[in-house]
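Worked example 3 (structure in, sequence out).
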């Protein structure tokens, strides 16, 4: 844990006791702050009481005695309407911050030279965060990884000169972290997302920009218009961002040539990183993630030559293009995290042909029609879940399909068909382009079920973690 010592003696209101909230309250208390907690959920309040925390309804509290409101990132700050605690804090002149901000202030107070790598983007931030931490660990560095990727930032060991913190940041977390100034700040991409919480794309992109605006080394992917504009603004202020593109060759920065990530300066090649054969980094989107990770790790002093071995041993993340097994020539890939067409597009683009595509669930707006440009890569689709009728209409006459209904039936049929395929490496790909809620509580349970089904097939050689 990172005790929040800089808040010692201060009176803190904290709202939101799920996820990171409980850890944040405990870290504040450990640092000597006086903390009053509340949550609209009675079960969360009970957990806080059991942990020995002070619980009081903040709706009836005397806000004049609070120095700050620490708000959970899951609680609306501005849109669609501020949570009831927000106007109470504003009316009392109480600042509103989050756990990332508490960590940043603790770092500034106790170890300002401690390396901090912060990563954001609409897509790819979890993979990039995990890859950065992996590369650092493989290079022998003391690494702490957390934030939006799963471990609350204040649950990590405290900042220290020889310790690198690698933190995934959502837009919600950035919005509550005004002093975020990482050693290396990575912005991968910006596409429409969370507009219910930010109102407009301008607001959403502006929040993302904050992460790189104060970074010592800003790293920006420039394959979308929002990020290109952000990179231009940084350059105009003399910030010299490290640029990344997997679409266009760059004279300065990282580009993609086939499976090779190239780093160039003034048009001259400085270094190359070949991703061929690294299954966990398959696809152009993962090339972008890899380039960003290389840039970030280099920014904290790891030599480029020490980075290459780590790329080859990266295991990837569960449910994100996760290679779970082989049956002869057939590769089974768990991409259950692909809950919309945009995410599934990246998976389909990663394989040239012979895809046995398991698709379906709770359909998102637009369905799979936007993926029509990749239909020629699909040998057959196996439809599961509530979207089956709609997806059958989209695929009719364009892609052979079967109405499998359940994931178990789809895996069995796809495995049998793939073994009969004459392609060098047929792939059975779970990339649903849908939420899971019709048959599973979340994409993690769906992906774990797929993994179990695959590994139960006779003759399968498991890959990755058991």
């Amino acid at each position: 844990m990172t005790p929040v010592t800089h808040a010692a003696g201060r009176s803190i209101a904290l709202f939101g006791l799920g996820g990171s909230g409980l850890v944040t309250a405990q870290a504040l208390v450990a640092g000597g702050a006086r903390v009053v907690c509340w949550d609209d959920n009675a079960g969360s309040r009970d957990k806080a009481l059991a942990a020995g925390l002070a619980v009081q309804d903040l709706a009836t509290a005397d806000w004049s005695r609070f120095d700050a409101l620490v708000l959970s990132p899951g609680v609306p700050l501005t849109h669609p309407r501020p949570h009831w605690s927000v106007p109470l804090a504003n009316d009392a002149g109480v600042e509103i911050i989050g756990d990332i901000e508490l960590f940043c202030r603790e770092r500034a107070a106790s170890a300002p030279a401690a390396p901090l790598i912060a990563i954001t983007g609409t897509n790819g931030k979890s993979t990039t965060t995990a890859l950065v931490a992996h590369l650092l660990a493989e290079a022998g560095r003391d690494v702490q990884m957390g934030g939006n990727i799963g471990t609350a930032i204040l649950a990590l060991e405290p900042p220290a000169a020889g310790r690198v913190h690698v933190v995934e940041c959502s837009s919600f977390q950035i919005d509550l972290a005004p002093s975020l100034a990482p050693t290396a700040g990575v912005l991968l991409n910006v596409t429409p997302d969370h507009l219910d919480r930010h109102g407009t794309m301008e607001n959403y992109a502006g929040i993302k920009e904050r992460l790189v605006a104060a970074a010592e080394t800003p790293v920006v992917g420039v394959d979308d218009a929002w990020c290109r504009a952000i990179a231009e603004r940084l350059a105009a202020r003399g910030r010299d961002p490290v640029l990344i593109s997997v679409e266009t060759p760059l004279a300065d920065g990282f580009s993609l040539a086939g499976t090779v990530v190239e780093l160039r300066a003034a048009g001259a090649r400085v270094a190359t990183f070949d991703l061929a054969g690294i299954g966990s980094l398959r696809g152009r989107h993962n090339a972008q993630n890899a380039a960003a990770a290389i840039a970030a790790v280099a920014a904290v002093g790891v030599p480029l030559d020490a980075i290459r071995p780590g790329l080859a041993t990266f295991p990837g993340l569960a449910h994100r293009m996760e290679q779970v097994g082989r049956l002869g020539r057939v590769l089974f890939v768990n991409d259950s995290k692909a809950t919309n067409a945009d995410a599934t597009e990246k998976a389909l683009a990663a394989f040239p042909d012979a895809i046995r595509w398991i698709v379906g669930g709770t359909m998102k707006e637009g369905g799979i029609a936007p993926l029509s440009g990749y239909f020629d890569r699909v040998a057959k689709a196996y439809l599961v879940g509530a979207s089956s009728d709609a997806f059958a209409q989209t695929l009719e006459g364009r892609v052979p399909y079967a109405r499998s209904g359940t994931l178990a039936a789809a895996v069995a049929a796809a495995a049998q068909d793939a073994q009969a395929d004459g392609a060098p490496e047929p792939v059975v790909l779970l990339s649903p382009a849908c939420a899971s809620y019709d048959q599973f509580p979340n994409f993690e349970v769906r992906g774990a079920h797929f993994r179990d089904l695959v590994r139960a097939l006779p003759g399968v050689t498991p890959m990755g973690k058991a």
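Notes: Residues 261 and 424 are 25 Å apart (CA to CA). The first strand starts at residue 11 and ends at 15.
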